[in-house]
Amino acid sequence: MTTAKDIMHPGAQWIPAHETLDRAAQLMREQDVGALPIADAKERLTGILTDRDIVVGCVAMGHDPAQTTAGEMAHGTPRWIDANADVDQVLYEMQSHQIRRLPVIENKRLVGMISEADLAQHLTDGQLASWMEQVYAHG
Fold first, then answer.
1. Best exposed site among 28, 47, 49, 62 by fewest CB in 10 Å?
2. Are 78 and 99 within 8 A, CB to CB?
3. pLDDT tens digits, 57-112
4. β partners of residue 64
5. How many CB atoms within 10 Å of residue 117?
């Protein structure tokens, strides 16, 4: 059985909710990623910050990324998957919530992230096509 841990990109890093968006952008550049999980002081997942969130939700709105925190950008209920979940559970979680990135948690610790690129490397063409249809569907 292929698990979330098998297909994830390891080494994902939290960004503290109190950290500013300019620092988040620097971390994204350093790690060559487009999203960072946001954590509270107890390292609980409070959201996901994307590069698009920074541009559209902060800069384009006329806000200063040096004064806006990651926590201010966290909206909704954060989604995650257990490291031992099988691929079908990963796909279900991402499809049912129409999300493109999914933090992987093991023993209450962030161990990685699953992105579209990770899925593309581990799914059949049919599975990938079905996933894309569901995630990108507008309803």
1. 62
2. no
3. 999 999 999 999 999 998 778 899 999 999 989 999 998 888 889 999 999 889 99
4. none
5. 9
Q: Tokens 């966290």 sit at which residue?
A: 74
Total residue count of the chain as it appears in this document: 139
Residues 33 and 42: their CA atoms lie apart, in Å, by 23
Q: What is the pTM of this model?
A: 0.84
Residues 94 and 102 sit within 8 Å (Cβ to Cβ): yes
Contact 17, 26 (CB under 8 A): no
Instruction: Give domain limits for the chain.
Output: 4-135
Mean pLDDT across the chain:
90
Which residues make Cβ contacts (< 8 Å) with residue 7, sequence separation at least 6?
87, 90, 114, 118, 119, 121, 122
Per-residue tokens: 43: 């390292």
